[in-house]
Description:
Layout: H1 2-7, H2 9-15, H3 18-29, E1 35-41, E2 47-57, E3 63-72, H4 81-95, E4 100-106, H5 110-118, E5 122-126, E6 130-136
Parallel strand pairs: 3-4
Antiparallel strand pairs: 1-2, 2-3, 4-6, 5-6
Amino acid sequence: MTLIEVLGEERGTALYSMEWLVKRVQYHLDGSCEGQVWLAEGAGGEILGHTIVRVEHTDEGQKFGLHSTTYVVPEARRQKIASELLHTGEAWMRSRQLPLAVTYTSTENIKLIRLYETHGYRIAETYTEMVKLEKRLATTSIR
């Protein structure tokens, strides 16, 4: 829905099929990667949003945390749900001693870019249609 909302029905739908999206969620839940999915629920149990995070590696083998997806349904926005999901994902990353949190999004996804910037992320790279946002995470060592 994010892609459709940001890029329009035709472009957003063309990028990823529903089958691909289902497989993506399963990948984060079935042990194929070190990842986690969180849902934000309303008082009646309805799903208001979600975030998906996982551990990734740089080309040099350094681990970092990736916010793969963050989404809140339009009618539940401006209630700090996305911020709570973002904080939950970061806490998960910190618990794994990951020094960096990253996300990628469309250059047109201004609302998500602003959300992440509000929480200390900066644009680290700009590609043709995408940006990479990142934030250094404070980690604590257990002795």
